[in-house]
UniProtKB/TrEMBL annotation:
InterPro entries attached to this UniProt entry: DNA_recomb/repair_RecN (IPR004604), P-loop_NTPase (IPR027417), RecF/RecN/SMC_N (IPR003395)
Family: Belongs to the RecN family.
NCBIfam families attached to this UniProt entry: recN
Pfam families registered for this protein in UniProt: SMC_N (PF02463)
Xref: Gene3D superfamilies: P-loop containing nucleotide triphosphate hydrolases
Protein name per the record: DNA repair protein RecN
Keywords, comma-separated and alphabetical: ATP-binding, DNA damage, DNA repair, Nucleotide-binding
Keyword DNA damage: yes
UniProt function note: May be involved in recombinational repair of damaged DNA.
Coiled coil: none
Limits of the RecF/RecN/SMC N-terminal domain: 2-509
Length: 551
């Protein structure tokens, strides 16, 4: 609910504070008094673009500030939470226009963008100008109206959940199919690389071992010759070294007891004898094992050439890295093969999700179609009440691709002259008719959806008498559950006010400014009487005005 509007330095308004109440707030005043200026100022805090030419005093900034009560507005609270804005029972929205023409917007003293401001205030205020038909022609609003009358809220919540699940599955399936298409192009190449490595069939550290073996084979003759020479010198000659050591040991044996030093020498010679004999045996053994195998050398070279080529091709250094690469290729190939299974599973999931979604959509569509005749009948009856007996509304529902709102395309068609020539509201230009049509529709759905503060700016153009009285009655009914603000020239509508505000011009020296004040009961009677018969109302007009207020 809009509690207060503070306007400063805007157009011909110097400093003005307007307080509003719940129920029906009526604003009246002579033509040119500044009622449209009030709406222009209000539009600023609703996110309209600022016009620096509207700044009254060019030496100071202009600002418009609105105070809203939002404790019973969960949608507003959710928006504030999502945008990290302070949450209070009272919401203060301010718009400033600086001297240089730049404008800024604030919510609870926190700067916000124009987009954020528009998104927030759309939840707070529905400002309907005489020629403002945007919301009425919006398909989203039209579906909201039909659904409110159809009681589709529960099914719509379930449908939207199902629709989002269907969308998510479809997106996931698209991603997988794209991956599959890309993988198909890579699969042959990966398979070739894997098969090449699999055919090589390397074992861990095999290339490194082959390099060591090749070094050994290439040095085999030299090693064998050296080992044979060792054996020959130690044991293979006519008088081998080990035999000489054995004889030395034997010659010292008789003298080991008389002289301890001889015993020590004898023991050391024996140790040398044993060690050298063992060395000779090992040298002979190793020499027998070694041979120059040209066939094996060729085989190793071929194996190493294959390995070196693959190492260079894949930019790695070791056999283990080649094997790790082979494992990676195996995983990729397996993943590609599993994509088909995943795609098949998602296709089945998508079919089930789509079936559930369409089942709910069919139920919603059926409820909509069932409600359309009743909605048309009620709106057309209300149109007759507000002075449009020849006007007709027709609701057109057609099948459409699934969207967040269902599987229906909707269009409100209008015939203002009982000609059976219905046209889309988007093509109808009569502001007065459309304003009253909007009033009729909103009055029907007011108790079923959470409408914001409704502001009607001179929707009474072209009507008078009973039609005006009916508009006033409908507004009064509408205001029973929400705040309604209406600028009007019709006494029949003004008579229904819960709070009557009067806009007037006042002179201060050479300047003229707009002001506003609340009228008490007697002032209301006089103002309404003046609306009926002129500046000096007759006694009959005063009595008529008194009756209008009492009804």
């Amino acid at each position: 609910m809009l509690q207060e509007l503070h306007i400063q330095n805007y157009a011909i308004i110097d400093d003005l504070v307007i307080r509003f109440d719940a129920g029906l707030n009526i604003i009246t005043g002579e033509t040119g008094a500044g009622k449209s200026i009030l709406m222009g100022a209000l539009s600023l805090i609703l996110g309209e673009r600022a016009d620096s030419s509207m700044v009254l005093n060019k030496d100071k900034k202009c600002f418009v500030e609105g105070v809203f009560l939002v404790s019973n507005k969960p949608g507003v609270i959710h928006f504030l939470e999502e945008n990290d804005l302070d949450i209070n029972a009272e919401l203060v929205i301010r718009r400033e226009i600086a001297v240089n023409g730049k404008s800024r917007a604030f919510v609870n003293d926190t700067p916000v963008t124009l987009g954020q401001l528009q998104a927030l205030t759309s939840r707070l205020v529905d400002l309907h100008h005489q020629f403002d038909t945007l919301s009425l022609a919006d398909t989203g609003f039209q579906l909201t109206v039909v659904d409110a009358m159809s009681g589709n809220e529960h099914n719509l919540a379930r449908y939207r959940k199902s629709f989002r699940a269907w969308q998510d599955t479809r997106r996931e399936l698209t991603v997988l199919q794209e991956r599959k298409d890309n993988s198909n192009r890579e699969q042959d190449y990966h398979r070739f690389l894997y098969n090449e490595l699999e055919e090589a069939s390397f074992k861990p550290d095999e290339l490194e071992g082959l390099e060591d073996e090749l070094k050994l084979l290439n040095s085999a003759e030299g090693i064998k010759s050296a080992l044979t020479n060792v054996y020959e010198h130690l044991k293979g000659q006519e008088t081998p070294l080990v035999q000489v050591l054995k004889q030395m040991h034997q010659q010292l044996q008789p003298f080991v007891n008389p002289l301890a030093a001889v015993a020590d020498l004898s023991a050391r010679i024996q140790a040398c004898y044993i060690e050298l004999a063992d060395i000779a045996e090992e040298a002979e053994h190793q020499a027998d094992k070694i041979s120059h195998d040209a066939g094996r050398i060729e085989e190793i070279n071929e194996r190493l050439n294959t390995g070196y080529r693959l190492l260079k091709k894949h930019g790695v250094q070791t056999t283990r890295e080649l094997l790790a690469l082979m494992d990676e290729l195996s995983v990729k190939l397996l993943a590609i093969e599993q994509l088909d299974d995943q795609i098949l599973a998602l296709q089945k999931q998508l079919q089930a999700s789509e079936a559930d979604m369409l089942r709910l959509a069919d139920s919603i569509s059926a409820a909509r179609k069932k409600q359309v005749p009743s909605l048309e009948k009620q709106v057309n009856e209300l149109l007759a009440r507000v002075g449009m007996p020849n006007a007709r509304l027709k609701v057109q529902l057609d099948p459409a691709e699934p969207s967040i709102s269902g599987t229906d395309a909707i269009d409100f068609l209008f015939d203002g002259n009982k000609s059976n020539q219905f046209s889309s509201l988007r093509k109808v230009a009569s502001g007065g008719e459309l304003s009253r049509l909007m009033l009729c529709i909103k009055s029907l759905v007011a108790g079923k959806i959470d409408l914001p503060t409704l502001i009607f700016d001179e929707i009474d153009t072209g009507i008078s008498g009973e039609a005006s009285r009916q508009v006033g009655l409908i507004m009064k009914e509408l205001a029973a559950a929400r705040q309604v603000i209406c600028i009007t020239h019709q006494p029949q509508i003004a008579g229904k006010a819960d709070r009557h505000l009067f806009v007037f011009k006042q002179a201060a020296g050479k300047t003229i400014s707009t002001n506003i004040r609340e009228l008490d009961r007697e002032e209301r009677i006089t103002a309404i009487a003046q609306m009926l018969s002129g500046e000096k109302p007759t006694a009959a007009a005063m009595e008529n005005a008194r009756e209008m207020i009492m009804k």
